[in-house]
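I would like you to help me understand the sequence and structure tokens below and explain how sequence relates to structure.
___
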Amino acid sequence: MHIDELVEHWTILDEERNLIAGKRDATRLGFAILLKFYTQHGRFPRGRSELLDDVVEHVAKQVQVPASELGFYEWSGSTIEYHRSQIRTHLGFRTCMSWPAAATALSRGCRS
């Protein structure tokens, strides 16, 4: 990937740094990559195989975690689900409800 593309799409912005700040090691790197991937593609990566090595290296330098730490990031389970939720909230997205669940919520007066 060309350096201009890395800088444009994979540079961590100041407001994103606050989200990343409380995380360490593989979790810090994994979260940062999820965040940048989602902002570029509108979805989360399915795993490490979707990530170019150049991208991982570029993000790793920014969060000051060795790129090799990404091998320890858990791509399933409660941690990644929490990370996804944090990212969606930060970006102003909410998960969809099925029609029956939404109708039930509305009938109970829930309007958000």
